[in-house]
Design a protein that fits this description.
Blueprint (H helix, E strand, L loop, with lengths): L1 H44 L1 H14 L4 H8 L3 H8 L3 H35 L6 H21 L1 H31 L1
Helix pairs in contact: 1-5, 5-6, 6-7
């Protein structure tokens, strides 16, 4: 029995460290999200000046149209903005989008941290509230991966679904074990 307690204590210590790290990452994501979104708004707000300077840079050859097209990633909408000289709007939208992605990361870190805090405070990692937090975090992670690539998102989603199923089975075994004692 003592050996089992040592394993639980080791898991709890590791979970404590992980909970602290997820909290730090969550705070960094929030700060960076605010900074990038504010920067995006400033870029859009200063569009007159930025658009003039970017237009001058293109005309002088400092920036080529090919370089701008490479950043557009084949997007016709972005290229139409650039062709109209609306550089600030494109840059601002990119910054605001990056801020939104950082907010998504902060939300994921919140739920992952909740899993580690719950494990730290419990006698077993196989509890229904932990599985619930895992499901939320895993759905958000899958959606974030789907945004980048359908194939990668599907693989990640299937893999995380398998992990959730394992935890659900562990919850059933834990429940049976608790009822036996």
């Amino acid at each position: 029995m003592r050996e089992d307690n040592l394993k639980i204590e080791k898991i709890q210590k590791s979970s404590n460290v992980a909970a602290i790290l997820t909290k730090v990452v969550k705070i960094v994501c929030i700060v960076m999200a605010v900074l990038t979104m504010v920067t995006g708004c400033i870029l859009i707000g200063a569009q007159g000046y930025i658009n003039r300077e970017m237009e001058a840079a293109v005309e002088s050859g400092v920036i080529s149209a090919d370089e701008i097209a490479a950043y557009a990633n084949g997007s016709e909408i972005v290229m139409s903005f650039v062709e109209n000289g609306d550089f600030a709007e494109v840059l601002g939208a990119y910054m605001i989008t990056a801020g939104a992605m950082l907010i998504c990361m902060a939300v994921i870190m919140h739920f992952v941290g909740k899993v580690f805090r719950d494990i730290k405070e419990s006698y077993s990692p196989f509890r229904p509230e932990i599985v619930k937090s895992l499901k939320v975090a895993f759905v958000l992670i899958t959606l974030l991966c789907l945004e980048n690539s359908l194939l990668i998102g599907a693989v990640v989603g299937f893999s995380l679904w398998c992990v959730v199923r394992i935890f659900e089975y562990g919850c059933e075994l834990q429940k049976q074990s608790d009822e036996t004692l």
